[in-house]
Amino acid sequence: MHGGCPVGTRYLEREREHLRHVLPGLEEFLAVTPLDELERPGSKALTAFRAAGGPGLVVPAEHGGRGADLLSAVRVQRAVGSRSPSLAVATTMHHFSVASLAEAAAASGGPEWMLLAAVAHDNLLLASGFAEGTTGQGILSPALTARVEGEGADGKIWLSGAKKPCSLARSMDLLTASVALPGPEGGAPSLAVVLVPADAPGVSVRPFWKSPVLAGAESDEVVLEDVEVPPELVVRTGVTEDGRLDRLQTAGFVWFEALMTASYLGVASALVERVLAVPKAGDAVRAEAATAVHGAVLALEGVARKAADGLHETVLADALACRYTAQLLIGRVAEQCVEALGGMAFLSSGDIACLSSACRALAFHPPARARMATALAEHFTGRPLRIP
After folding, report:
1. pLDDT at 23
2. What does the record give under GO molecular function (predicted)?
3. Which CATH number does the domain 127-236 belong to among 3.90.1150.10, 3.30.420.40, 2.40.110.10, 2.40.50.140?
């Protein structure tokens, strides 16, 4: 089945039309390409994403990008997720990194705008080297270690360590990562976001991802061995060891949670779409699955609209609540859809198994629901939101 879409349903048409409008050619490519081709290593999906100008989607228009806001990007990711789970997950890592840079540029007026312009003009892909995927470790915990010589903006930084899994490992142009840097005059260390060119001396990629699920996301291991980072590629944040977030990190988290949730709702939507195309599945099941996902989408779009008024911790808490609700809902909907489609549909094509497995992976992205339980409970009783 091409692109994972039955013919004749109106479901997802709004999102797909939006994708056709903002990234011309991508929806057309995904719609005619078999799902198993899109989900395998070496897929041409990322090439099509570049050709459509996807890297510049959330780059502000004044820097040469498409200027998509969070609501627009949420709709794009749901459409992409319904066609290729791997592409949606991989590009979410890019988009949230770019959105964080855009927030830094707007706040500081520093050189970040030149990077944004380069992303849009040259279709550069940014991978994320944050601590995602490390059991028991928070996303703010640096996955890399820094060796620093000198102080302040002119100090030299060398990075070592590894990030696994790291989506876009083989197609990235830049790796974004968090590092702990010494505070001024021996003060408390603070986090900084660094950008490392993929072709910098000391950067290498090793095989890591062995599962056939989301294999097209290029989630391999990126290794850094004493890699020097130019000062202009270091963005210092206001985050310290207690987990309190500054404006930059809050914005990044909102984008990450919203876009990742949209991506996996897109994958679940692909299953719902198949059920809607099979009347024998029964109206009750078809309506329940469709309305459950639609309700989660409406909630997520509400968060995205709220974000237009400012990216603060209340919006982040809303995004997390939306994500964890969707996470629970998606598992139930996937079970309903697989059962309704029946054993012959499952056996006759690998698409159903692929989508059913892929949509459950939302639970693996940070911060884990159990890890955030105390922080969210405290936030809803009036305390500042922390990311443990």
Report:
1. 98
2. acyl-CoA dehydrogenase activity; flavin adenine dinucleotide binding
3. 2.40.110.10
